[in-house]
Amino acid sequence: MKEKQLTIEHAFLKLLEEHRFRNITIKMICEAAEINRSTFYAYYLDKYDMLDQMIDTHLSVIGQFVEETSMNMMNAEDKKPIIKKYFLDLFSYIYLHQQFFRVLITVHPAQNFTQKLISTLHKNYLTSIAANGGSLKDPKYFVNYTLGGQFGILFFWLQNNCNEPPELIADVVYRNMLKLNR
């Protein structure tokens, strides 16, 4: 990604911390990023396109984590370290991009983003389960239950400005998923 594009997106996220999406204008974004309108339009059609590109980029990376995990699990006897690494990768990524996730999940929740995030995780978890023997009873319900808890933890963590390190959050989710925390 180009430096100017990162500058534009960072300025946009800062604006989203204070303003609703519908109230943000291209002019506001350009002023905050200290760029000309033509620079903005060199990367995006409009603010909707920019947000969609940002969402798609983050969901693509998260999808890659799940695909990698699924492939690594296929031949592994002990799947627990692979699952633990997945959660560490996921929460480390979210921590690195916490402004984006915090704004779209807790500050000004974007229903479109939340639905896409949960749908991506849901689909990928089911694919991973199926690729690894699919021995779970009622996998759709297990995945929905698991995602509900994970999303609750993610929401709480983001709402509290990611005060805990991603390693701790990954471990909390891992232990709860495997029922080791009870």
From TrEMBL:
InterPro entries attached to this UniProt entry: Homeodomain-like_sf, HTH-type_Tx_Regulator, HTH_TetR, TetR_C_Firmicutes
Presence of the UniProt keyword Lipid biosynthesis in the record: no
DNA-binding region: 25-44
Domain of life: Bacteria
A GO molecular-function annotation: DNA binding
Residue ranges of every copy of the HTH tetR-type domain listed in the record: 2-62
UniProt entry keywords in alphabetical sequence: DNA-binding
Name this protein carries in UniProt: TetR family transcriptional regulator
